[in-house]
Amino acid sequence: MSRASGPLAAALARRTVLLDGGLSNQLENQGCDLSGGRWTGRVLEEAPEEVLAAHTAYVRSGAEVLITASYQVPAEPGLLHRSVALAARAAGAAAHEVWVAASVGPYGALLADGSEYRGRYGLSRPALAAWHRPRIEALLAAGPDVLALETVPDTDEAEALLSVLAGTGARAWLSYTVEGGRTRAGQPLDEAFALAAEAPEVIAAGVNCCDPAEVLPAVARASATTGKPVVAYPNDGSVWDAGAGLWHPPDTPAPWPVAAWQDAGARLIGGCCRVGPAPIAGLARSLRPGSQGVG
Protein backbone atom coordinates (compact mmCIF):
# COMPACT_ATOMS: atom_id res chain seq x y z
CA MET A 1 0.00 0.00 0.00
CA SER A 2 2.78 2.46 0.88
CA ARG A 3 6.53 2.48 0.44
CA ALA A 4 7.04 1.93 4.16
CA SER A 5 9.04 -1.19 4.92
CA GLY A 6 8.04 -1.32 8.57
CA PRO A 7 6.00 0.41 11.29
CA LEU A 8 6.49 4.13 11.73
CA ALA A 9 7.21 3.60 15.42
CA ALA A 10 10.24 1.50 14.54
CA ALA A 11 11.59 4.25 12.30
CA LEU A 12 11.11 6.84 15.04
CA ALA A 13 13.25 4.74 17.35
CA ARG A 14 16.13 5.12 14.87
CA ARG A 15 15.87 8.59 13.39
CA THR A 16 13.89 11.74 12.65
CA VAL A 17 11.10 11.28 10.10
CA LEU A 18 9.97 14.12 7.83
CA LEU A 19 6.28 15.01 7.60
CA ASP A 20 4.67 16.83 4.69
CA GLY A 21 3.39 20.41 4.79
CA GLY A 22 0.04 22.14 4.57
CA LEU A 23 -2.43 20.51 2.21
CA SER A 24 -4.75 23.50 1.89
CA ASN A 25 -2.08 25.95 0.74
CA GLN A 26 -0.75 23.48 -1.82
CA LEU A 27 -4.22 22.86 -3.22
CA GLU A 28 -4.80 26.61 -3.45
CA ASN A 29 -1.49 26.97 -5.27
CA GLN A 30 -2.78 24.38 -7.73
CA GLY A 31 -5.82 26.58 -8.39
CA CYS A 32 -8.36 24.63 -6.33
CA ASP A 33 -11.43 26.20 -4.75
CA LEU A 34 -11.47 25.54 -1.01
CA SER A 35 -14.48 27.70 -0.18
CA GLY A 36 -17.28 26.29 1.92
CA GLY A 37 -17.29 24.27 5.10
CA ARG A 38 -15.52 21.20 3.69
CA TRP A 39 -12.30 23.03 2.84
CA THR A 40 -9.81 20.40 1.56
CA GLY A 41 -12.66 17.87 1.78
CA ARG A 42 -14.38 19.73 -1.04
CA VAL A 43 -11.40 19.09 -3.32
CA LEU A 44 -11.27 15.47 -2.17
CA GLU A 45 -14.89 15.07 -3.29
CA GLU A 46 -14.86 17.14 -6.49
CA ALA A 47 -11.29 16.89 -7.80
CA PRO A 48 -9.45 13.95 -6.21
CA GLU A 49 -6.71 14.14 -8.85
CA GLU A 50 -5.69 17.48 -7.33
CA VAL A 51 -5.30 15.88 -3.91
CA LEU A 52 -3.09 13.22 -5.49
CA ALA A 53 -1.03 15.95 -7.16
CA ALA A 54 -0.57 17.75 -3.84
CA HIS A 55 0.57 14.58 -2.10
CA THR A 56 2.95 13.90 -4.97
CA ALA A 57 4.44 17.40 -4.68
CA TYR A 58 5.31 16.67 -1.06
CA VAL A 59 6.76 13.25 -1.89
CA ARG A 60 9.00 14.94 -4.45
CA SER A 61 10.08 17.39 -1.77
CA GLY A 62 11.26 14.51 0.38
CA ALA A 63 8.31 14.02 2.74
CA GLU A 64 8.20 10.61 4.39
CA VAL A 65 4.69 10.89 5.86
CA LEU A 66 1.64 12.02 3.90
CA ILE A 67 -1.32 13.29 5.94
CA THR A 68 -4.65 12.57 4.26
CA ALA A 69 -7.30 15.07 3.15
CA SER A 70 -9.77 13.85 5.77
CA TYR A 71 -9.28 16.65 8.32
CA GLN A 72 -12.70 18.23 7.76
CA VAL A 73 -14.55 15.25 6.30
CA PRO A 74 -17.52 14.01 8.35
CA ALA A 75 -18.43 10.36 8.78
CA GLU A 76 -18.74 9.55 5.07
CA PRO A 77 -16.89 6.26 4.56
CA GLY A 78 -16.51 6.64 0.81
CA LEU A 79 -14.70 9.97 1.07
CA LEU A 80 -12.65 8.90 4.07
CA HIS A 81 -11.51 5.76 2.26
CA ARG A 82 -10.69 7.84 -0.81
CA SER A 83 -8.49 10.15 1.26
CA VAL A 84 -6.36 7.21 2.42
CA ALA A 85 -6.27 5.61 -1.03
CA LEU A 86 -4.99 8.80 -2.68
CA ALA A 87 -2.21 9.28 -0.14
CA ALA A 88 -1.31 5.60 -0.47
CA ARG A 89 -1.13 5.94 -4.24
CA ALA A 90 1.31 8.84 -3.97
CA ALA A 91 3.32 6.95 -1.36
CA GLY A 92 3.43 3.83 -3.50
CA ALA A 93 4.93 5.78 -6.41
CA ALA A 94 7.72 7.25 -4.27
CA ALA A 95 11.33 6.19 -4.57
CA HIS A 96 11.80 6.42 -0.82
CA GLU A 97 10.01 5.14 2.27
CA VAL A 98 6.66 6.87 2.83
CA TRP A 99 3.96 6.28 5.45
CA VAL A 100 0.29 7.31 5.26
CA ALA A 101 -1.23 9.14 8.23
CA ALA A 102 -5.03 9.41 8.25
CA SER A 103 -6.00 12.83 9.53
CA VAL A 104 -8.56 12.93 12.33
CA GLY A 105 -9.35 16.60 12.72
CA PRO A 106 -11.10 18.01 15.79
CA TYR A 107 -14.84 18.51 16.10
CA GLY A 108 -14.30 22.26 15.77
CA ALA A 109 -12.86 21.86 12.27
CA LEU A 110 -16.21 20.58 11.01
CA LEU A 111 -17.90 23.70 12.38
CA ALA A 112 -15.67 25.78 10.06
CA ASP A 113 -15.78 28.74 12.45
CA GLY A 114 -12.34 28.60 14.05
CA SER A 115 -13.57 26.52 17.00
CA GLU A 116 -10.51 24.26 16.80
CA TYR A 117 -8.52 27.24 18.06
CA ARG A 118 -10.71 27.57 21.13
CA GLY A 119 -11.96 24.10 22.13
CA ARG A 120 -14.47 23.61 24.91
CA TYR A 121 -17.36 23.11 22.49
CA GLY A 122 -19.97 22.50 25.17
CA LEU A 123 -20.16 18.76 24.39
CA SER A 124 -19.46 16.03 26.92
CA ARG A 125 -16.57 13.64 26.38
CA PRO A 126 -18.99 10.75 25.62
CA ALA A 127 -20.72 12.93 23.04
CA LEU A 128 -17.41 13.83 21.43
CA ALA A 129 -16.37 10.18 21.41
CA ALA A 130 -19.65 9.19 19.77
CA TRP A 131 -19.10 11.83 17.11
CA HIS A 132 -15.52 10.78 16.37
CA ARG A 133 -16.06 7.00 16.46
CA PRO A 134 -17.56 6.44 12.98
CA ARG A 135 -14.93 8.64 11.35
CA ILE A 136 -12.09 6.80 13.06
CA GLU A 137 -13.60 3.40 12.28
CA ALA A 138 -13.93 4.31 8.60
CA LEU A 139 -10.38 5.58 8.41
CA LEU A 140 -8.96 2.52 10.14
CA ALA A 141 -10.88 0.28 7.74
CA ALA A 142 -9.03 1.97 4.87
CA GLY A 143 -5.72 0.72 6.25
CA PRO A 144 -3.47 3.73 6.91
CA ASP A 145 -0.12 3.26 8.61
CA VAL A 146 -1.08 5.56 11.48
CA LEU A 147 -3.79 7.99 12.57
CA ALA A 148 -2.98 11.68 13.02
CA LEU A 149 -5.14 12.96 15.89
CA GLU A 150 -4.24 16.53 15.08
CA THR A 151 -4.98 20.14 15.96
CA VAL A 152 -6.63 19.03 19.20
CA PRO A 153 -7.48 22.14 21.24
CA ASP A 154 -8.16 20.68 24.67
CA THR A 155 -7.85 17.66 26.93
CA ASP A 156 -11.59 16.88 26.81
CA GLU A 157 -11.36 16.12 23.10
CA ALA A 158 -8.07 14.28 23.54
CA GLU A 159 -9.66 12.01 26.13
CA ALA A 160 -12.62 11.40 23.83
CA LEU A 161 -10.37 10.47 20.91
CA LEU A 162 -8.22 8.17 22.99
CA SER A 163 -11.28 6.44 24.42
CA VAL A 164 -12.32 5.54 20.86
CA LEU A 165 -8.88 4.08 20.14
CA ALA A 166 -8.57 2.18 23.40
CA GLY A 167 -8.19 -1.54 22.80
CA THR A 168 -8.27 -1.29 19.01
CA GLY A 169 -4.57 -1.97 18.48
CA ALA A 170 -4.43 1.07 16.19
CA ARG A 171 -1.42 3.36 16.21
CA ALA A 172 -1.71 7.14 16.32
CA TRP A 173 0.03 10.34 17.15
CA LEU A 174 -1.68 12.99 19.26
CA SER A 175 -0.86 16.63 18.58
CA TYR A 176 -2.35 19.67 20.25
CA THR A 177 -2.66 23.17 18.89
CA VAL A 178 -1.20 25.47 21.52
CA GLU A 179 -0.77 29.11 22.42
CA GLY A 180 1.10 30.75 25.28
CA GLY A 181 2.56 27.45 26.45
CA ARG A 182 -0.89 25.89 27.01
CA THR A 183 -3.55 24.15 24.97
CA ARG A 184 -5.83 26.51 23.08
CA ALA A 185 -8.41 25.93 25.83
CA GLY A 186 -5.84 27.03 28.43
CA GLN A 187 -4.89 23.71 30.02
CA PRO A 188 -1.32 23.01 31.18
CA LEU A 189 0.69 21.01 28.67
CA ASP A 190 1.86 18.56 31.33
CA GLU A 191 -1.76 17.62 31.90
CA ALA A 192 -2.42 17.37 28.18
CA PHE A 193 0.59 15.21 27.37
CA ALA A 194 -0.01 12.93 30.37
CA LEU A 195 -2.97 11.51 28.45
CA ALA A 196 -0.64 10.44 25.64
CA ALA A 197 1.80 8.92 28.11
CA GLU A 198 -0.91 6.60 29.41
CA ALA A 199 -2.24 5.49 26.01
CA PRO A 200 -0.45 2.50 24.43
CA GLU A 201 -2.00 3.38 21.07
CA VAL A 202 -0.09 6.67 20.95
CA ILE A 203 3.36 6.32 19.36
CA ALA A 204 4.17 10.05 19.42
CA ALA A 205 2.77 13.24 20.92
CA GLY A 206 3.37 16.91 20.37
CA VAL A 207 2.03 20.02 18.67
CA ASN A 208 0.86 21.26 15.30
CA CYS A 209 -0.95 24.24 13.76
CA CYS A 210 0.77 26.71 16.07
CA ASP A 211 3.36 29.47 15.91
CA PRO A 212 6.89 28.09 15.42
CA ALA A 213 7.97 29.96 18.55
CA GLU A 214 5.67 27.70 20.60
CA VAL A 215 7.34 24.49 19.43
CA LEU A 216 10.54 24.18 21.45
CA PRO A 217 9.06 24.50 24.96
CA ALA A 218 6.14 22.28 23.98
CA VAL A 219 8.46 19.61 22.56
CA ALA A 220 10.45 19.63 25.78
CA ARG A 221 7.28 19.19 27.86
CA ALA A 222 5.96 16.42 25.61
CA SER A 223 9.22 14.50 25.77
CA ALA A 224 9.57 14.84 29.54
CA THR A 225 5.93 13.95 30.21
CA THR A 226 5.43 11.07 27.79
CA GLY A 227 8.88 9.56 27.27
CA LYS A 228 7.77 9.00 23.66
CA PRO A 229 8.93 10.47 20.36
CA VAL A 230 7.60 13.97 19.80
CA VAL A 231 5.78 15.34 16.74
CA ALA A 232 6.14 18.99 15.71
CA TYR A 233 4.62 20.63 12.64
CA PRO A 234 3.83 24.31 13.11
CA ASN A 235 2.34 26.88 10.76
CA ASP A 236 4.50 29.56 9.17
CA GLY A 237 3.60 31.92 12.01
CA SER A 238 0.43 33.30 10.42
CA VAL A 239 -2.75 33.74 12.49
CA TRP A 240 -6.11 32.48 11.21
CA ASP A 241 -8.94 35.03 11.20
CA ALA A 242 -12.07 32.86 11.17
CA GLY A 243 -14.41 35.82 10.71
CA ALA A 244 -12.61 37.11 7.63
CA GLY A 245 -11.65 33.64 6.42
CA LEU A 246 -8.01 34.53 5.87
CA TRP A 247 -4.54 34.25 7.35
CA HIS A 248 -2.61 37.22 8.75
CA PRO A 249 1.09 36.60 8.10
CA PRO A 250 3.69 37.54 10.72
CA ASP A 251 5.64 40.77 10.38
CA THR A 252 8.83 38.81 10.95
CA PRO A 253 8.71 35.02 10.47
CA ALA A 254 9.94 33.11 13.51
CA PRO A 255 13.03 30.96 12.91
CA TRP A 256 12.76 27.21 12.97
CA PRO A 257 15.52 25.91 15.28
CA VAL A 258 15.04 22.36 14.05
CA ALA A 259 18.25 21.04 15.60
CA ALA A 260 17.06 22.30 19.00
CA TRP A 261 13.68 20.63 18.44
CA GLN A 262 15.48 17.36 17.74
CA ASP A 263 17.68 17.75 20.81
CA ALA A 264 14.50 18.21 22.88
CA GLY A 265 12.97 15.00 21.53
CA ALA A 266 11.24 15.82 18.23
CA ARG A 267 11.28 12.83 15.86
CA LEU A 268 8.38 13.68 13.53
CA ILE A 269 8.96 17.12 12.02
CA GLY A 270 7.17 18.95 9.22
CA GLY A 271 4.86 21.85 8.50
CA CYS A 272 1.19 22.69 8.81
CA CYS A 273 -0.81 25.58 7.32
CA ARG A 274 1.03 27.78 4.78
CA VAL A 275 4.14 25.60 4.80
CA GLY A 276 4.60 24.31 1.25
CA PRO A 277 6.81 21.88 -0.64
CA ALA A 278 9.81 24.24 -0.85
CA PRO A 279 10.24 24.53 2.96
CA ILE A 280 9.72 20.77 3.27
CA ALA A 281 12.49 20.22 0.71
CA GLY A 282 14.69 22.48 2.83
CA LEU A 283 13.90 20.42 5.89
CA ALA A 284 14.72 17.25 3.94
CA ARG A 285 18.16 18.62 3.12
CA SER A 286 18.82 19.62 6.74
CA LEU A 287 17.57 16.35 8.20
CA ARG A 288 19.18 14.15 5.56
CA PRO A 289 22.35 15.78 4.22
CA GLY A 290 22.81 14.86 0.57
CA SER A 291 19.07 14.57 -0.05
CA GLN A 292 17.90 16.15 -3.30
CA GLY A 293 14.34 16.54 -1.98
CA VAL A 294 12.92 14.45 -4.83
CA GLY A 295 11.28 11.04 -4.46
Automatic annotation (TrEMBL):
Keyword field: Metal-binding, Methyltransferase, Transferase, Zinc
Domain Hcy-binding stretches: 5-287
One Pfam family here: S-methyl_trans
InterPro entries attached to this UniProt entry: BHMT-like, HCY_dom, HCY_dom_sf, Hcy_S-methyltransferase
GO molecular function, one term: S-adenosylmethionine-homocysteine S-methyltransferase activity
Chain sites annotated for binding Zn(2+): 209, 272-273
PROSITE patterns: HCY (PS50970)
SUPFAM superfamilies: Homocysteine S-methyltransferase
GO biological process, any: methylation
Cofactors, names only: Zn(2+)
NCBIfam families named among the record's database cross-references: PRK09485.1 (NF007020)
Name used for this protein in its record: Homocysteine S-methyltransferase
Species of provenance: Streptomyces venezuelae
